Amino acid sequence: MKMHPPSRTISSALIPVSEIDHYDLLEVMTSNAATGLGVGATMIGQQIKSINSTLKELEVLHQDTFRKHDSLNHSEFFDQRQRLFTKLDFAL
Predict the structure, then answer these.
(1) Which residue would you say has higher pLDDT here, 5 or 41?
(2) b/e map 54-67, b = 16+ CB within 10 Å
(3) pTM as predicted
């Protein structure tokens, strides 16, 4: 087994200078990707809050309508429920 002088071993292990330039590009790409993921997570979080709010509105509508009319068979209930379902469709 032939031993290389230490300087040759170290030199061959180093990355050529031309490849180091790509690290700047890689850094920009990864930082932009991280920012995009953060923004995406925020948007999804807001969307989930909106859906949750609409579902709570539906629950209150059911409860209030039943309390007022002892049934859900009422035109006002159906109109409001349809509006909330449309709101949910848009959110999903």
Answers:
(1) 41
(2) beebbeebeeebee
(3) 0.59
